[in-house]
Amino acid sequence: MRPIIILLTLTLIISVFGLTTVAFAQEAESSGGPSDGKLIGAGLAFGLAAAGAGVGLGFVGSAGLAVISENPALQSKVFIFIGMVESIAIYGIVMMFIILGQ
Q: Over the stretch 38-94, which tens digit does the pLDDT of each residue have?
């Protein structure tokens, strides 16, 4: 558990320092592309959804394997639950495209 906390803390520190930019005294250019806020929002939407799906898949997958080992006839029901957990990541991708499309 401790290496995960260290890795998440290091990722947070790198992200915070990566978002800071040097300010120059010049006019802003209108590139017409997505602003920084949209890119951060889209990244958070997909990243958090994928992380949540990964954690959920760990719990559902381990419980599903235990159920299948006891009763192989329940395999199709376990796959339905795994598909429901994976749909969370798909919702994150959809939200990412909605944010970037505005």
A: 888 889 999 999 999 999 999 999 999 999 999 999 999 999 999 999 999 999 999
Identify residue 62 by its one-letter amino acid code. Answer: S
Does residue 2 sit within a domain? no
Residue 1 belongs to a domain: no
Domain count, the chain: 1
Residue 21 domain-assigned (yes or no): no
Q: Cα separation of 74 and 19, whole Å?
A: 48
Helical segments of 1-102, H only: 2-19, 36-70, 75-101
Cβ within 8 Å of residue 100, ≥6 positions away: 34, 38, 39, 42
